[in-house]
Please model this.
Amino acid sequence: MTARSTFLSRRMFLATGAATVLSAPALRAQGSARVVIVGGGAGGASAARMLAAHPGIKVTLVESNAIYTTCFFSNLYLGGLRDFDSLQYGYRGIAGAGVQVIHDRAVAVDRDRRLVVLAGGARLSYDRLVLSPGIDFVDGSVPGWTQQDAQRMPHAYRAGAQTQLLARLLHTMPQGGLFAMIAPPNPYRCPPGPYERVSMIAHFFKHRNPTAKILVLDPKPRFAKQALFLEGWQYHYPGMIERIGPDFGGADVQVHPASNEVIIDGQVQPVDLCNVIPAQKAGAIATLAGLTGGEGWAPVDGTNMASLMDPDIFVLGDSADQGEMPKSAYAANSQAKVAAEAILNQLIDTPAYEASYANTCWSLIAPGDAVRVGANYGVRDKRILASNSFISQPSESAAQRKATADQAEAWYGSITAEIFGESQG
Ligand SMILES: Cc1cc2nc3c(=O)[nH]c(=O)nc-3n(C[C@H](O)[C@H](O)[C@H](O)COP(=O)(O)OP(=O)(O)OC[C@H]3O[C@@H](n4cnc5c(N)ncnc54)[C@H](O)[C@@H]3O)c2cc1C
Model:
């Protein structure tokens, strides 16, 4: 029995026959090529607007939430540099672009019949399906912590109520208290994200709770932009932040949420607040669709972002196992462009383009002091590989760092406008 038939025998159960596969000319003649997109975040919403710009394509976006809160720049909210509202976007701009927006949860994909099943019972048929469902957490990756404990020890790694909860708990920490972060193993969403968060929380403490301490427990020997963060922490927040890597027990950590304790290499450490960022995997629908491999991510063909398990399904953003691009909003948006071109080429015969991608990740270390890392990417043997890269240097001038911070602000404004087609609100 093939993996696919195993998957089908476990799942869908509709009585009708398999869908007929139509060629691009046949679809064009019928004037009704259907693209369903699951996930209205950085990847999915970008793809929806790009595809809907073409007559002859009917685009349906399925998104659980009526409001999307960006993880990107959520650390600035924790640092007190942005309002929560400034991270939130609705779907008016996407509906206004001609996309049918359905707020419901996709619970199954019948790949043989090309149907997406929604929690509310609707069945959406597709010619091409795009999945950009973000991340889920790996159960048990931090012993002692389950998702039920996220009220006490928040992850704040899917933005929204969790981000607000972490902010509230930071505000109520006692003076001189201890904040611990359990950083995730690779690969995970936004490699510099935990360390930008440490910077922004340190900035918050510097002004509101200057004797507080931050303890980072890290299973990784190295982390993104490490030299830049360490230099910035020493400069802006001397003596406040301690990081324990795997050599000293950072990979042997468990938690007791009920008693607010972290156990490091067998030693019990009481804390005032703990931010648990668990190990991650593709959003659940990618696995339910039978598109993920052993590591929990969905392998794709870097030439077009199509699943290696099903060429009619495109997987974007954090869920995709694509090669060397980091899991970022910038990357998800870049991948959406490539996938949209490929889908248009397949469905309405637009010209084919060679895939190329770009990414830049900015991180704020303190107000007006930002660093960046990025690259352009090409494709070899279906894997996305960096073709050139750049990174901020230690000891750059304050003017350079300020210019980088200004770039980050400008990027946030332009990418959110591109994704959602409207300014925040
Ligand atoms: C703290 C932090 C800081 C970050 N900073 C940056 C940054 O500065 N720059 C940057 O580029 N990136 C940054 N990122 C990373 C960025 O947020 C993600 O990489 C990006 O959002 C991934 O896009 P996506 O489309 O894969 O997933 P998402 O944007 O998470 O979108 C997934 C959407 O799918 C929906 N969904 C999931 N499953 C279903 C389903 N079954 N049915 C219906 N809807 C579903 C979800 O509700 C969600 O809206 C940061 C992340 C974090 C956590």
